[in-house]
Amino acid sequence: MKRPTITDIAREAGVSKGAVSYALNGRPGVSEATRRRITEIARELGWAPSSTARALSGGRAGVIGLVLDRPPDVLGVEPFLTALLDGIDPASLLLQVVPGLDAELAAYRRWRGERKVDGVLLPGPGCAGDRIGELVRIGLPAVVLGGPLGRPDVPAVWVDDAAAAGDVLGYLAALGHRRVVRIAGPAAFAHPRARADAVAAAADRLGLPAERTVHTGHSGEAGPGAIQRVLAQPRPPTALLCDTDALAVAALVTARELGLAVPGDVSVVSWDDSPLCRLVRPALSAVRRPLAELGGLAASVLAELLAGEQVGDVCASRPALVTRGSTGPARP
């Protein structure tokens, strides 16, 4: 008989896989009543919390790995990581920050050779090609964070950017905004092409002018410089959609330096919703992505993969647009 999985429990309980992961791993995020109901259903189906531990035992390290190709100083101002790791047991995670692709691949090879990890969580942007090929070659199981690849051997857990794009652009269009520019930075755990396609498709559905994207790099100076060039144009945008909270804060500061009012002259929306969005003034309107759920789901899917289960791509809960003081009607 097939061993029950979190998918079976979620279906039976009528909840998301993220809720099941929270409940069975003792993490916050669900009510006590929901936790009890999920635990009871898991017991009835023959699932036990120790099954994940068994999947990671038997000569295994009991640890999953995550390698981030990002400058350490940038990580310090990107709150996404804390939110993501809130859904993963910190005792079971090995995190390493590296300065490039070669160092990232070397970390995977070293971990595999030393049996330090049983599998890895793979950040989505740029994860195809060399990364996937090397992981398959050395036999290190992986779950992708941030967009399906269409590969049954490498499942993905992601957040639906298409839904978020429709919500944001629909909201801005209702406020009269026609000139919207996306500031595309190194977004965490989101496939850059998928996000761009989602925003472009939403703009087309709403009859907005072709969405324009301005790309920035990892450095702390890249974002403000790009934003300044965009806002200093003869016909600047009336709204900016920023890929990260750090870029959205940079947009607030840059607009102020140029003598522009937010939201009077330009509205600003962030694609994440960390505490940073509520600390600045005006507070930032933002897309709240379920990053803790994303982390918990990814760890659960990887555990099932290691246990020999047939697993597929999983979409986390729908993002939610939270409106605050940084957005308002477009100027005439």
Low-confidence stretches: 49-58
The number of strands is 12
In percent terms, what proportion of residues is strand? Answer: 15-25%
Report how far the terminal alpha carbons are from each other.
66 Å
The level 1 CATH classification of the largest domain is: Alpha Beta
The biggest beta sheet reads: 6 strands, parallel
Q: Considering DSSP H and I runs of 4 or more, what fraction of the residues is helical? A: 40-55%
What is the overall number of helices?
14
User: What is the CATH fold-level name of the largest domain?
Assistant: Rossmann fold
Provide keyphrases for this structure.
332 residues; alpha/beta; 434 Repressor (Amino-terminal Domain); Rossmann fold; 6-stranded mixed β-sheet; 14 helices
Descriptive notes:
There is one protein chain. This protein has 332 residues and is an alpha/beta fold. The chain has 14 helices and 12 strands. The protein folds into 3 domains: 6-45, 434 Repressor (Amino-terminal Domain) (Orthogonal Bundle); 61-158 and 290-318, Rossmann fold, CATH 3.40.50.2300; 161-289, 3-Layer(aba) Sandwich (Rossmann fold), CATH 3.40.50.2300. Strands 2-1-3-4-5-11 form a 6-stranded parallel beta sheet, sandwiched between helices. A 6-stranded mixed beta sheet has the order 7-6-8-9-10-12, with helices on both faces. Helix 12 links the parallel strand 8 and strand 9. Residues 49-58 have low confidence and may be disordered.
